[in-house]
Amino acid sequence: MSRKYPLDGLALEIKEHWRKYRPQMYRELEQEGRLDQSLHEASERTGLAFAQQVEHGLEPPSAWEAVRELWAVLPAESDEPNLSPSQPPLLASREPMQELFPSEPDPAERDLSDDP
After folding, report:
1. Enclosing domain of residue 22
2. How far apart are CA 22 and CA 37, in angstroms?
3. Tally of domains within the chain
């Protein structure tokens, strides 16, 4: 386990799922040295998306159903050999949470109608 990308319980569950259902992706990430980073990101993104769904009023089981297949419980390679570009395990971006939490809005786009 990487010290830079610690794996929590969800990340370990994701790891087992990917190893079983996406073995080629798993091996590629492992060979490239990006497996722990990708697992960590998938766990973080899933957890944050889950929390957002609950905050917006979904019951936890419904929130889990809504977010689990986005990053954690990916489809089997036999069913979907190529993931869509929006699924981060293959991206392992340098800014892991950028899609969920974009940087500060552009001041030019800010609504100035309320400013004094």
Report:
1. 1-76
2. 16
3. 1
Long-range contacts of 19-25 (CB under 8 A, 24+ apart): 21/74, 21/75, 21/76, 21/77, 22/74, 22/76, 22/77, 23/77, 24/77, 25/74, 25/77, 25/83, 25/89, 25/90
**In-domain check, residue 67:** yes
The two tokens of residue 56 are 């917006």
- Is residue 74 a contact partner of residue 26, using CB atoms and an 8 Å limit? no
Contact 42, 13 (CB under 8 A): no
**What percent of the chain stands above pLDDT 90?**
54
Q: How does residue 38 score in pLDDT terms, banded at 50, 70 and 90? A: very high
- Residue 113: inside a domain, yes or no? no
The first and second tokens of residue 81, run together, are 């050999």
pLDDT at site 71 = 87
Q: Indicate whether 89 belongs to any domain.
A: no
Angle at 30 between CA 28 and CA 81, to 5 degrees: 30
Q: Is the pLDDT of residue 45 over 50?
A: yes
In a domain, 10, yes or no: yes
